[in-house]
Amino acid sequence: TSPLQSPSTSPVAVPTRDLAPGAVGEEVRALQKLLNSHGYAVASTGPGSSGNETTRFGAATYAALVRFQKAKAITPAAGYFGPKTRAVFRAL
């Protein structure tokens, strides 16, 4: 591991495809991991919570993404993961 990275944390790749509610796949899990690791919890316990990320983009992922977008002044804060949100995550 690098000095900037703890052994228990591996970097999460920013999803390359656009994601919206209803999307399914590993890129949704990556989005949930990003949201959870940056303080925008998808869920506090159970599915979607840190360490229990899922492959389904549902209401909890949507709500966490909207909170992130509002906090980062991404407009519109529509709960859609596209180029604007991707660019902000890459800059973090």
Q: How many runs of DSSP E, i.e. beta strands?
A: 0
Distance between the termini: 19 Å
Give start-end ranges of low-pLDDT stretches.
1-8
Helical fraction: 25-40%
Structural class: mainly alpha
Give the helix tally: 3
Biggest sheet details = none
Please characterize this protein's 3D structure:
With 92 residues, the protein is mainly alpha-helical. The protein is 37% helix and 0% strand. It is built from three helices and no strands. The longest helix has 13 residues, at 59-71. The protein is globular. It starts with 25 loop residues before the first helix and ends with a helix.
Features:
92 residues, mainly alpha, globular, disordered N terminus
In short:
With 92 residues, the protein is an all-alpha fold.
Question: SSE layout and pairings?
Answer:
Elements: H1 26-37, H2 59-71, H3 83-91
